[in-house]
Amino acid sequence: MRIDVAATPAEFDGADDGTAVVVIDVFRAATTITTALANGARFILPTTDVEQAVRLLEPYGETEAVLGGERDGRRIEGFHLGNSPREYSRDAVANKVVILTTTNGTRALSLTEDAGAVFVGCFLNAGRLAAELTNWPRVSLLCAGNNGRLSLEDWVCAGSMVARLTETARPATEEPEIAAPRRRGRRPRYAALRPGPVEPTLGDGAYAAWAAFLAVKTDMAEVLRSTEHARHLVELGFAPDLDVALRVDSLPVAPRLAEGRIAPSPEKD
Ligand code: MLT
Asked: Cα–Cα–Cα angle for 169, 172, 177, nearest 5°?
């Protein structure tokens, strides 16, 4: 297996049918999608455009579908729901179609059409997704980012997935070290940990995201509550959404995008 991580959509160099892509948007699109499916939504229709979202609602009756989404973090005028995972309760979405448009998450999803498989990832389902990915020859983790810029929460989440995929490929004892001091003429210690011909092969983005995760993992929640987008959400009154988004492995659902719909990938035997 080869693993690559794109810090932003601009860095994503597409995917072929041998690649499983995971679109990561911790605050909040991927967390909301995973929550809606865990609460019984039939499927999600992601779109990048508000007008198109309204058009997608037309074929559905009043009670069959809901319009959800945000711009600049706020619910879109006239929509039933915003993008807070707390709004996507069983009462609000069970047995309904969710039509969703967000600033970064659904835009990143729109870049993945040539991939062999497309999943939606966040901390809630990181472990479940790692299990889903083990047999793919190539895994590409695509961070949705923050208006074209790297978002630390997505980057660290990608790093946590790299850690899980490497753990399954190598013995637990090989705990990599961070920021080995470089002595003149000596290759950094990392090189010693690089797996060489064995699995997985890490692109530099994957290695860097893994290192970022290891650097913050002991106080990850605290670090990620102070990211740029986290601070913006707190200003808007969405601090409780950060608590939801940081519940690691709380919802073992693997949202998979196929033919324009996101639905839970069937459990692996
Ligand atoms: C996004 O997709 O841009 C984010 O999820 C926005 C948000 O909900 O804050």
From this structure: 100
* CA–CA gap between residue 231 and residue 224 (Å, rounded): 10
> For ligand 1, is residue 123 a contact (CB within 6 Å)?
no
Question: Which numbered atom of ligand 1 lies nearest the CA of 144?
Answer: 2
> Residue 69 C-alpha to ligand 1 middle, in angstroms?
8
First to last CA, the chain: 21
What is the tens place of the pLDDT at every residue in 76-131?
A: 999 999 999 999 999 999 999 999 999 999 999 999 998 999 999 999 999 999 99
Average pLDDT of the chain, as a whole number: 91
β-bridge pairing 261-264 and 255-258: antiparallel
Residue with tokens 């929509």: 79
Q: Is 25 in the pocket of ligand 1 (CB under 6 A)?
A: yes
Q: Which of 239, 222, 256 is nearest to 119 (CA)?
A: 256
> For the whole model, what pTM was predicted?
0.90
Q: List alpha helices for the chain, DSSP H.
A: 29-38, 50-57, 90-93, 105-109, 126-133, 152-169, 190-193, 204-216, 220-224, 228-235, 239-245
CA dist 37 → 32, 41, 93, 108 (Å)? 9, 5, 8, 19
- Atom 8 of ligand 1, residue of closest alpha carbon: 28
Q: Which atom of ligand 1 is nearest to the CA of 28?
A: 5
pLDDT band at residue 176, thresholds of 50, 70 and 90? very low
Q: Judging by DSSP bridges, how do beta strands 97-101 and 19-24 pair with one another?
A: unpaired
Query: Which of ligand 1's atoms lies nearest the C-alpha of 30?
Result: 5
- Is it the case that residue 21 has pLDDT exceeding 80? yes
Question: Residues 233-259: pLDDT tens digits?
Answer: 999 999 999 999 999 999 999 999 999
